[in-house]
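User: Could you check the structure of this?
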Amino acid sequence: MKDKKPKSVFKEGAITSDFIGNSIYKHQTKTSIGAHNIFLGQVRADVIDNKTVTAIEYTAYEDMANQKFHDIRESAFDKFDLTCMHIYHSLGTVKAGEICLFVFVSSPRRKVVFEALEYIVEVIKGDVPVFGKEIFEDETHQWKVNS
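Assistant: Sure, the predicted structure tokens are below.
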């Protein structure tokens, strides 16, 4: 199983509320789950040098990023008693107010999902080669620095 190519976590454009809702809905038949936790990363309309961010254009070294996401997934399952875990990240342009990152974890117990989700999101932000170009209202742009 270790030789299997990691699954792609990327979705073109924004992650829709329908997609998120359907992902939650699919877990209703998994009756060993007692808790879910979700992180939704949303593009902010930050003001930088008196210019407002209207969108972020995401790019990635996809093979490398998918391997990192796979490694994070394996690590999370080793560290925490998770039943399910899903990660989706946008590629392409995502407008301010839209969702660009969706992380969904499930476990028999609630405390686990809080700890696991924080761990997963922090590792994603620190280790995965996904890059965002902030696009401003005047159509200029700059590379985003994660904070």
